[in-house]
Amino acid sequence: DTAVSQTPKYLVTQMGNDKSIKCEQNLGHDTMYWYKQDSKKFLKIMFSYNNKELIINETVPNRFSPKSPDKAHLNLHINSLELGDSAVYFCASSQDGNNSPLHFGNGTRLTVT
Amino acid sequence: GENVEQHPSTLSVQEGDSAVIKCTYSDSASNYFPWYKQELGKGPQLIIDIRSNVGEKKDQRIAVTLNKTAKHFSLHITETQPEDSAVYFCAAFKNTGTASKLTFGTGTRLQVTL
Question: What is the pLDDT of residue A15?
Fold first, then answer.
């Protein structure tokens, strides 16, 4: 079983559209994250949730809205997509957000045309 | 905030040789330093980590060293194999209570040639 699974794997859409990426973890972890990886492979944290509560919001535009219906799920909704949003988005989870290892999903490659 | 620098950005070695990737961090309060390997089309995967109360850790062909005074840590891969080819990321974790977070280095693309 995949520990951290995110869907879809690829997402191609036009500017101005709204899209969602879903993430689920079956590790029983309390903390979940969204990371953005740009074309130069730089990994930057976007959000962190601990037990459904928002912990970190790294100056991400408010067009990005994470939602955590329960601690096993952290979805990412993006409104009014822009060309610069094109990237690979990774979901991750960790036991407690306290220097415990992160487990990453396999990423969603978002292409905005 | 924490700043993690990683060198080199690309590294090419022959199969069987050793590879060394170096990172520096800025915040002396950081206390956990994981290393991740990212293969093409996949998410980063933890390969080894070290905590600030330890100077060195080894797991088969990979080892990590930490110099807290100099705020340096390094990944060493011995007897490299083609399957070691990937992008490697170092990271530094700082516990600030509720806003603890992991800051990644900029990555090293390792190519192991036959």
Answer: 97
Residues of chain B with Cβ-Cβ distance to A101 below 8 Å are 34, 46, 49
Q: Which residue has the tokens 């969602």?
A: A20
Position with higher pLDDT, B1 vs B71: B71
Say yes or no for a CB contact (<8 Å) between A40 and B106.
yes
CA distance A103 to A110: 21
**Residues B62, B87, B79: CA angle, nearest 5 degrees:** 30
User: Other CB atoms closer than 10 Å to residue A83's CB: what's the count?
Assistant: 9
d(CA B87, CA B107): 6
User: Which residues of chain B have a CB within 8 Å of the CB of A55?
Assistant: 98-99
* Neighboring chain B residues of A8 at a CB cutoff of 8 Å: none
* Backbone angles phi and psi of A60, in degrees to 5: -90, 140
